Structure formats: structure tokens, C-alpha cells
Amino acid sequence: MSAEAARKVRAAIVDDEDLARQVLREYLTPHSDIEIVAECANGFEAVKAVAELKPDLVFLDIQMPKLDGFEVLELLDPSPAIIFVTAHDNHAIRAFEVHAVDYLLKPVGVDRFEAALARVKERLAANAANQSQPRASAAELAAAARQPAQYVDRIPVREGTSVVIIPAAKLDYVEAQDDYVALVSQGKKHLKQQTISSIEAALDPSRFLRIHRSYIVNLERVARVEPYGKDSYVAVLADRVQLPVSRAGYSRLRAFLDR
Amino acid sequence: MHPILGQFRRMVLYLVAWIPLAALLAFLLDTTHAIGLRESLALAFPLCFVYAFVCLSAWYPCRVTPLEHTNLSKFLVTHLSGAVVATALWILAGRLLVIELAESSSFRGLDHRYTAEIPLLVGTGILFYLLSVAFYYILLGIEASRDAEARLLQASMLAREAELRALKAQVNPHFLFNSLNSISALTGSDPSKAREMCILLGDFLRRTLGLGEKTAIPLSDELSLIHAFLAVEKIRFGARLNMVENVDPGALNMNIPPLLLQPLVENAVAHGIANLIDGGCIRLDVALRDGDLSILVENTFDPEAPLRRRNGVGLANVRQRLEARYGNRAKFGAEAAGTSFRVALEFPAEREARLP
């Protein structure tokens, strides 16, 4: 790899419409320092391409089938610089919260596009300089940047280069493991880089309860709650799994059951 | 709510209306020669005053036996028994009054002569009661017609509101932005296609102009609108968008509300096709059966995709418009069956344009 090629910015374009990708392709043509390494027609392809090719920059559409742009971002870790490209202007605030570099509205004009590219180059240069500082994972931010009172009914999880979508109804419980959480669904564990508190905020509190510092349980799975030892309790699920319940968790559980 | 009781002005008017009735009664009593004019007057006016209040109660049986929904026997039984009870009360009141009056010197012996008047009193009692019944039915009729007028006004307001909303949803900005973006792409790679798309888009927008003011358009016009819309979307989605159409040729010049079907097709694209990675198919069936139009809009969709609220608003809009315009002669159903989403409409086919 020549020194010149090493300095090229690697970009991926993600949009379900071929014509929309074409516009960006065309605008990138005069930029010889930017190389298009992937074009993806949906979120699954995007996650795979980013995991395998590790681009520096991704042009990301928001309204896409199956996985929308923000869900894709949740699964990109480490996350490249993101430019959202969309016809909808109502996601701008959320885009800001996930620290996207820019937000382009369709139809995309060349001047606005050039301005976005300039910001990307600035951001990439700044990142290179601040390599030592830990950045908040964009995936964490994406997962946390949700409109208030809008609970998720599914959680996307990346496993290698593929994506698994766990419907909330099939989520049995969540277990905290350092920086990750394990999402247990139908006997299988899926790891996701997110804090248990931010998952708690995203799940519907009438269906999911934080019973312990490290555990959130799907209330429909709880068969019974038994005392355990002198002062604590344990929640027994339908499939015999036992989860510890803290004192605070127990009072929350009681409050819910009494309703 | 009793129309007279409880409202002072109406009560006064009502009692004043009984004065001629009392005079009539006095006259009748007098003509029987059993009692004199002075006595007739002394009897008639207080009695009618009392009876005015008794007849107020005729309202209640009238209200529970509305003319259109009551069979004849129930009607007769209700009101005749009411008349009998009221008259009995009246005769009793009359006897009490007469006994009181007979105590004074000017009315000596009245209580004996009263008995001769009873048949007349019974006759007039029943007559006055039935007059009250008729009066209350008239009042109920006026109220009903006022209600019907109000409901008609509301229905037409609702329909107009719904048309406006349909039209607003029509000029869907996101559809425009996406289309313009596609045209922008084509100007670089396929200029003649770009031009074609501009024209298709313009054609579609032109067709939607002025539709909101019309109360009905021929089905063929609505279909042209849908075709124009899909022609634009086909360029965006390419092979992902497929359409199958089955239209009964006899239905083509039937009149339907404007912008009734196009939003359903737009929903099918936005919530069905756009959410499927490999796209899908939209199906439109229009049949004409026994004077009713039977329309089906079906599309493949992803049952696991999160439901977006706009879908519900569009469907509720269509249901509301059908109800406001055709009442219970229209049927509407929307359901998901596996990987298909089906919207089925049925409503009377109209040949002539409806009068607004």
C-alpha cells in the first residue's frame, strides 16, 4: 500500500435506493482522496461491510427496510464518522445526540455535500490527534438517544458481521457484564456493548423491571418469587432460571404485582 | 328533559294556553243546564289549572313510545291508560273542589249536581289529555328534525375535513423530496429518464390539484392518479415495486370520493414495499356487484417491522370519509394476514354526481 493510498479516506454508502446512492457516488467522483469501499442497500449489508472493511466514513440513510439508520449505528463499534442522508428533517436532533458529523437533506445539493465533507476531514484529523482519549461509543449514544417515552419493541445485536434482531417479547432477561450486557432470549445469550441503565431506559417499564443492579427481567417470564436466605429473594423464571432480586428490586416487584 | 317543566316562561305560556280550554269547559258545563254559568266558571278554571299540571306528565309516556318505533297496541294501551288515570285524578280533584265550594252559601248543593256532570268531565278529561299527547308528539317531531339537520351538517363538515386531510396527506413532502433526489441522480446518468420522471411527477401533482373541492370523480380518474403516482415510485424502487390490477370495466365510470384509493396505495408503498429488502407486490381489485363497488388493496409487508403511526391515520381517514358519506351502507376492513396487508372497501356505486 503506497503512502498516498494510506491517506485516502475510505467511505461506504448505505441507502436502499439505488438512485440515491448514485447521487452520492457522483458527488464523490471529483474527490480523489476519498475511496468508495462499499455500497449497501440495507442495514444488514452495512453492518457486515463496516465490520469487514472498517471505513472511515459512512453515508447513512435513515428510512430503510428492517433496520433503520439509527439501529444500524447502534451496531457499529468502533463507529466510523457518520453523515446521515435523508428526506426527513425530524431526525436532526437525534443525529446530533449520536454525534453524527452532518445531516444532509434530500434532494442533496452539491454545496451542502462539500461542506459536510469538509467537516468530516476536520473530524477525522481531530480523531487521529486524540487517539488516546476514550470516546463515548457511538453505539452507546445511538442506543441512548431515543425520544422520551418511546420504548423499543426490538433490540438489534451484532454478532461478528451479522445482525440478530431480538423482539422485546422474546427477551427473557438482561444481565450486566462490565461494559456489556447479555441479552438472554430463548436460551441464547447475545452480548451488546451498552450499559444496563441505558437498556433499562429503552425498555417498556410495564413489561421489564430492574430487579437487581445487574439484572432486568421480562415480567411475563417470572413464574414466582421465592425468599432466599435471610434477607433476599430470587426470581424463578418459567424455564427454571433463577435471578437474584435485591431489596430495592423486591419492593419494585411488589409494587408492580400489587397493582 | 321536560320541554315545559322547569322553565318559567314556558310554564306561564302553557298555563295561559289552558285558559281557552277552561273557558270551553265552562261553556260545556253550562250547556248541560245542571249547573249555572257562575258555577261552571268556578268549577272549570280551578279544575283546568290542576289538570294543566296533571297533563304535564303526558310527556313521559310520549317520550318512551316514539311514533316510528312503537306498535299500535302498545301505543293505544299506553296513552289510553294514561288518559284514564289522569281523568280519574281530575274527577277526584273536581269532587274535592266541589265539596269545598259547597260549604259557601253561593254554591250550596253543588256537590250533588256535580255528579250529573261527571260523564261530561270524563269526556273532556280524556280529550284534553289526548290533546296534550298530540302536542308532545309534535314537540318531539320538531326536536327530531332539528337533530337530523344538525347531524347532516356535521356529516358534511366531517367529510369536508376528511377531504382536506386527504389532500394534505397527498402533497406528501417526503414523497416529493425523494422523487426530486432521484431526478437529481438521473440528470447525471440518464438525462432523458430524468426528464421523463419530471414530467411524470408534474402529471401526478397536476391531477391532485383541485381534487379536494370535488365531491366525486369517476373511478377511471382515480386510477389514472394512482398510475401516475406508481410511475414515479417505480423509478425510485425499480424491481422492488410490482403492481397487479384487476378492474371491472363496468366500474370505470362510477363516481367515488376523490383521493380515496390513492392514499391507500401510497401507504402500501411506504409501509409495505419500502420496508421489504427485496420489495413486494401491490394488488388492486375493483369489482362491481349489485350496485356496490367492492375494492381491495393488498400488499406484501414485513410483519416484524415496527408499526408506524402514519399508517393508522391514513386508514382512519378513509373509514371516516366512507362513514360520513355512505353511513352504514359502506363497509371497511383492514387486516394483516401473514405477510399480506389487506384493506377492503365496499360502498354503493354512484353514476350521477351527488348533489352537495
Features:
heterodimer; A: 259 residues; alpha/beta; five-stranded parallel β-sheet; five-stranded antiparallel β-sheet; 9 helices; 15 strands; 32% strand; disordered N terminus; B: 356 residues; alpha+beta; five-stranded mixed β-sheet; two-stranded antiparallel sheet; 10 helices; rod-shaped
Walk me through this protein's architecture.
The complex is a heterodimer of chains A (259) and B (356). With 259 residues, chain A is an alpha/beta fold. Chain A is built from nine helices and 15 strands. Chain A has helices at residues 3-6, 18-28, 43-53, 69-74, 92-97, 110-129, 138-144, 196-202, 247-258, and strands at 9-14, 34-40, 57-60, 81-86, 102-105, 154-159, 162-167, 171-177, 180-185, 188-192, 208-212, 215-218, 222-228, 232-237, 242-245. In chain A, the strands form four sheets. Chain A has a five-stranded parallel β-sheet with strand order 2-1-3-4-5, sandwiched between helices. A five-stranded antiparallel β-sheet of chain A has the order 10-9-8-12-11. In chain A, strands 13-14-15 form a three-stranded antiparallel β-sheet. In chain A, strand 1, helix 2 and strand 2 (34-40) form a beta-alpha-beta unit. Chain A is elongated. Mean pLDDT of chain A is 87; it is low at 1-5. Chain B is an alpha+beta fold and 356 residues long. Helix content of chain B is 63%, strand content 13%. Chain B is built from ten helices and seven strands. Chain B has helices at residues 8-31, 37-56, 59-64, 72-103, 110-170, 173-189, 191-208, 219-237, 262-272, 309-326, and strands spanning 217-218, 241-247, 255-256, 280-289, 292-300, 331-337, 340-348. In chain B, the strands form two sheets. Chain B has a five-stranded mixed β-sheet. Chain B has a two-stranded antiparallel sheet with strand order 1-3. In chain B, strand 4 and strand 5 form a beta hairpin. In chain B, helix 4 packs across helix 5 (110-170). The longest helix of chain B is centred in the middle third of the chain and has 61 residues, at 110-170. Chain B is rod-shaped and about 120 Å long. The two termini of chain B are 35 Å apart. The chains are: A alpha/beta (259), B alpha+beta (356).
